[in-house]
Amino acid sequence: MKKQVLLIAIAIFSFGIMQAQDIRFGAKAGVNFASIGGDETDGIEGKTGFHIGGLVEIMLTDQFAIQPELLYSAQGAKFEETDSEDGISVTVTDKTKLDYINLPIMAKYYVTEGLALEAGPQIGFLVSANAETELDISGIDDPEFIEFIEDEFGVGDQDISDGTSGIDFGLGLGASYRLDMGVFFGARYTLGLSNINDFEGSDNFKQQNNVFQVSVGYLF
């Protein structure tokens, strides 16, 4: 599946270059509403991040285009749980931070002037992977006991790149609207197709990136 997605992306891009009638370069940036789906994801919440990068719109006909993009994308998820007992309350917040360089190659169809529907494969290359644990403790005034609890929960940042797959595959679906001046607005949902985990036994523990993006950009 992974190799097929990559080959399809390369083929689409190559075909687009050969058939291009008009090529426009652009830039875009926006907000990510990211989450992680798959095994053991009950209680996992979304994480807000961002994306920024460049793109090329390759017009093949008056209505159909290929749009490769190169984006830096901050993704991941968050888990929060609170336990209370005997007047002591502990809230644990675990944040998974996954940063990628993503290469989507979108097929665009202009339904009407300025309004386009888009779909296509995406390959992502992991830049960094970190797990951050935070504690909010109330009902305890003893600093040594608080430090003991923090040590037990492993408070702080941890590099988890060794257990995270270096390559991610997804499928994007979305729409965009371009004004005459070149400014455009877009919304896209990218469904993860590959397991983001890469540790011993991860074949039985599969999770995927899912990201909804809202963007604003400019085509020159």
N-C termini distance? 35 Å
How many separate domains? 1
Structural class: mainly beta
> What fold name stands as the CATH topology?
Porin
Question: Helicity range of the residues?
Answer: 10-25%
Shape field: elongated
CATH top level is: Mainly Beta
Run of helices and strands: HEEEEEEHEEEE
User: Which residues sit in consecutive blocks of at least 5 with pLDDT less than 50?
Assistant: none
Strand order of the largest sheet: 1-3-4-5-6-8-9-10
Biggest sheet statistics: 8 strands, antiparallel, barrel
Q: How many β-strands, per DSSP?
A: 10
SSE map:
Layout: H1 2-19, E1 22-38, E2 44-45, E3 47-59, E4 64-85, E5 88-112, E6 115-138, H2 143-153, E7 156-159, E8 167-178, E9 183-192, E10 207-219
Antiparallel strand pairs: 1-3, 1-10, 2-4, 3-4, 4-5, 5-6, 6-7, 6-8, 8-9, 9-10
Short description:
With 220 residues, the chain is mainly beta.
